[in-house]
């Protein structure tokens, strides 16, 4: 199935798209709860529009794939329908499994690679901004992550806790911004192979040469 140009091209684009989204979603939920102080329920409600959009795209995609060339459609964010629809019916189950594996791998890569970059930005910025006089354990926890800073601040006096949280939240926001820019670049780059490798494929169900 990897020798099939549509399958390999779509899976490559799907991997890049999942990588772009994986780390961003993880940090956004942390930002909403740790930096903005929202409850898990409130944070969930804030990301609900994104989930609703995914449902809408999944519902509309079977219609869109019959009217729009797959390369153009995938460049806008669709991959799964083409992976499954480009192989013989008896291999549809295997193709679906490949798409799922690609999604899981991409999300894991996004968390590991892009998330590591965001963490490095956080640590590089927060280290020089923490107030003096912090207990060594609190300073180490605050430099490690925003979650560590929040936990450490809970055991500190009010003014000192605020002096820890302010730079930690700012540094985390910088890391999230950097991660979002990288994710946007990856997503834009995914459109190139979508158009080059899949642009020749006509809409599903169209007559040859259309």
TrEMBL record:
InterPro entries, per the entry: MFS_trans_sf (IPR036259)
Superkingdom, taxonomy of origin: Bacteria
Transmembrane feature ranges: 46-65
A GO CC annotation given for this chain: plasma membrane
Residue runs in coiled coils: none
Identification of the protein by name: MFS transporter
Source species of the chain: Planomonospora sphaerica
Membrane topology of the entry: Multi-pass membrane protein
Compartment list: Cell membrane
UniProt-listed PANTHER family: MAJOR FACILITATOR SUPERFAMILY MULTIDRUG TRANSPORTER MFSC, METHYL VIOLOGEN RESISTANCE PROTEIN SMVA
SUPFAM superfamilies in UniProt: MFS general substrate transporter
Keywords associated with the record: Cell membrane, Membrane, Transmembrane, Transmembrane helix, Transport
């Amino acid at each position: 199935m990897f020798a099939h140009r549509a399958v390999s091209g779509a899976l490559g684009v799907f991997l890049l798209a999942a990588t772009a989204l994986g780390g961003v979603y993880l940090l956004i939920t942390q930002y909403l709860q740790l930096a903005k102080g929202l409850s898990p329920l409130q944070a969930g409600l804030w990301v609900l529009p994104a989930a609703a959009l995914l449902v809408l795209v999944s519902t509309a995609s079977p219609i869109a794939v019959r009217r729009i060339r797959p390369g153009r459609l995938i460049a806008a964010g669709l991959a799964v329908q083409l992976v499954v629809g480009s192989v013989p019916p008896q291999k549809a189950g295997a193709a679906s499994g490949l798409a799922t594996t690609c999604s899981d791998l991409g999300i894991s890569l996004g968390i590991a690679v892009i998330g590591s970059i965001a963490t490095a930005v956080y640590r590089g910025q927060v280290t020089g901004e923490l107030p003096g006089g912090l207990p060594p354990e609190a300073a180490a926890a605050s430099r490690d992550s925003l979650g560590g800073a929040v936990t450490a601040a809970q055991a500190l006096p009010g003014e000192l806790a605020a002096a820890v949280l302010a730079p930690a939240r700012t540094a985390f926001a910088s890391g999230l911004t950097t991660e979002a820019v990288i994710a946007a670049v990856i997503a834009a780059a995914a459109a190139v192979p979508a158009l080059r490798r899949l642009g020749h494929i006509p809409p599903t169900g169209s007559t040859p040469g259309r």
